[in-house]
Description:
Elements: H1 4-25, H2 35-44, H3 47-64, H4 107-143, H5 145-159, H6 163-172, H7 179-190, H8 192-205, H9 209-216, H10 221-257, H11 269-276, H12 285-312
Amino acid sequence: MPDVTKTATVADEAVDTPSVVADAGAPKQEKARSLWGDAWRDLRRNPYFIVSSVLIFFLLLIAAFPGLFTSASPTAGDLVKHYVGKPELGNIGSEGWLGYDIQGRSVYARLIHGTRASIIVGIAVTLIVTIVGGIMGMIAGYFGGLIDAVLSRVTDIFFGIPFLLGAMVVLQSFTDRTIWVVVFALAFLGWTQITRVMRGAVITVKQADYVHAAKALGAGTTRILFRHILPNAMAPVIVVATIALGGYISAEATLSYLGLGLASPTVSWGVDISAGVQAIRTSQHILLYPSIMVSITVLAFIMLGEAVRNALDPKLR
């Protein structure tokens, strides 16, 4: 007589086996990604992002630790080392690698130490205009009405002032033009674009269902602004701020070249470009190398901003 219990067990196993196989062969469901997760995935595959990130990291490293790249002083001059002499391109990293300027100072040492001033100006101005412009744009876009009208008209007034011309006027009122004075002059007129971008983004985001749901649940204005609206309106602001950072570095170099920005003894690429003009016929290297550094830095931040824009804008995917 057959064992009924054993037969039933085998039958149960036979029934269970196809389901196990089906479960094993079923495709694994992907975890849902946010906008920032998709953007980060796209950025890692973008060669422009990789190249610009490497360049910016290298520039930040130079600005933070200039002593790692040269032991020469950027301010010590020796008139015996005449600036007409050609750079010693074969001695990479040496004091005379890129030649000497009019006062006998190492061009290479000044390039390395001048990175800090340009990077500080660019980052500081970007942070200030992003905070100030972001808050003003968020308030104007969220509350609307009279508040929006007043803040928009103030923004239009400042936006109508030519950026470099206005910075020149502001800087003329200071006798001692330090790094932070230049930062103030550029930030004083640079917040308008961020304000407009943030205002437009907030007007769009505040119409979303999750914002209406938060209001219905009794969430306060501060919580709605900083927990629901700000994180979803920051994407275009980050793009504009990243691209603008390179423009602020270029503006600082331009003002220093015109003699209205940073001045000696501050070591800056713009100061060196201005000094190099005096010897452009005989020693072009004094003007050439700081100009190249400014161009590379501005290009790196513009490339980074373009990569971030392509990653955060759904229409460009």
